Amino acid sequence: MLALLYREPHVNSDSTCGSFKNRVNLKDVTNRDVSLILKNVTAADTGTYECKVGQAGDQFDPKIISTVGLKVKPDQKTIRVKYGETVTLPCRAPLREQLDVAEWSRTDLESDQFVILFSDNRVNDGSQSPSFKNRVKLQDVENGSASLILKEATPADSGTYECRVVQGGNSCRKRDPLDTDLLSIVNLRVGESDCFCIRTSSSFLVLM
Predict the structure, then answer these.
(1) What would the pLDDT profile of 114-173 be if each residue is shown by its tens digit?
(2) Who has the most CB within 10 Å: 26, 89, 96, 179?
(3) What's the domain count of the chain?
(4) Which CATH number covers residue 102?
(5) Percent composition of the chain: helix, strand, coil (DSSP 3-state, to 5)
(6) Rounded Cα gap, residues 31 and 148, in angstroms
(7) In this structure, are residues 78 and 99 in contact, taking their beta carbons and an 8 Å threshold?
């Protein structure tokens, strides 16, 4: 599939790869400037891009005139919350469309365990770490949001979380179904409760 195909006099949208839909255009094709404009860039756009141009009479055999390597770092945030709070860890795919796969992992979990894994239009409970069962959900996978909602946060939830997704229907490259794109890294820090107990000679004084 292609990021963009232009055949005079217009762009052939049917040939555009799903994840680039409505995000790409040519800068000024009228004046022979076919630089690619890519909007709403995410780490999923990392890769090597080739610009091929063919002139009339080339018998549909375009030549490579430019190769560009694009590297986009995933979004990184540090979030601090208090004990017992509900927290949202942000992660959004390029398109406001249904996600094919969405997964959140934490770097200190076993390799076969996830904070949450969404695939085949459902959450895969069998792969979820027991410590997150019934406490996490994805915000809006139907509209491209894989943001994680975590309830009743505790200090044990502190760690580095990674969000990966697959989106866009037809993949823009051949890959294993679980070869997902890293979009977001969140360092979560959960503090202790703001409650202090002071013992006097005969009783406890609790300060909130």
Answers:
(1) 999 999 999 998 999 999 999 999 999 999 999 999 999 999 999 999 999 988 654 565
(2) 89
(3) 2
(4) 2.60.40.10
(5) 10, 50, 40
(6) 46
(7) no
